[in-house]
């Protein structure tokens, strides 16, 4: 069964850090571009970061310089390191997989598999 599972969310104070994990089962991530998306309360899901099969990356302006892929593009797990978190980073974070190198990521429509999300709350 093909599955993506996110973990690592939680409550953190502004300026704090979290590391999210995206774990694949039923397939390996080597041949997929992995994207991280965020859905804030009352807003549409937006693409934040993508890592392609060759390790090249994309980051949205809102997270550039604060978010990074930790540990590269591994066989079953991809990590997103989030530093200097802000209250506007609050939301449900989803990982998604797109077959092959980056084609549509960070657009939602082209992703093949989705996880169910992990909640990140940034608040004092």
Describe this structure in words.
It is built from no helices and eleven strands. The N and C termini lie far apart (40 Å). The mean pLDDT is 94. The protein has strands at 3-7, 10-12, 18-25, 32-39, 46-51, 57-59, 67-70, 77-82, 91-99, 113-114, 118-122. By secondary structure, the protein is mainly beta. Strands 2, 4, 5, 6, 9, 10 and 11 form a seven-stranded mixed beta sheet that branches.
Low-confidence stretches: none
Main beta sheet: 7 strands, mixed
Strand content: over 45%
How many strands?
11
Which structural traits does this protein have?
48% strand, 4-stranded antiparallel sheet, 124 residues, 0% helix, globular, mainly beta
Task: Give a brief rundown of this model.
0% of the residues lie in helices and 48% in strands. With 124 residues, the chain is mostly beta strands.
Please give the structural blueprint:
Elements: E1 3-7, E2 10-12, E3 18-25, E4 32-39, E5 46-51, E6 57-59, E7 67-70, E8 77-82, E9 91-99, E10 113-114, E11 118-122
Parallel strand pairs: 2-11
Antiparallel strand pairs: 1-3, 3-8, 4-5, 4-9, 5-6, 7-8, 9-10, 9-11
């Amino acid at each position: 069964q093909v599955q993506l599972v996110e973990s690592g969310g939680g409550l953190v104070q502004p300026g704090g850090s979290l590391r999210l994990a995206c774990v694949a089962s039923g397939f390996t991530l080597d041949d997929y571009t992995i994207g991280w998306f965020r859905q804030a309360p009352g807003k549409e899901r937006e693409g934040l970061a993508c890592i392609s099969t060759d390790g090249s990356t994309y980051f949205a302006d809102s997270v550039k310089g604060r978010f990074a892929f930790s540990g590269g593009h591994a066989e079953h797990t991809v990590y997103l390191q989030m530093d200097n978190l802000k209250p506007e980073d609050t939301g449900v974070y989803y990982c998604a997989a797109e077959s092959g190198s980056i084609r549509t990521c960070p657009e939602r429509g082209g992703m093949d598999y989705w996880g169910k999300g992990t909640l990140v709350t940034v608040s004092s």
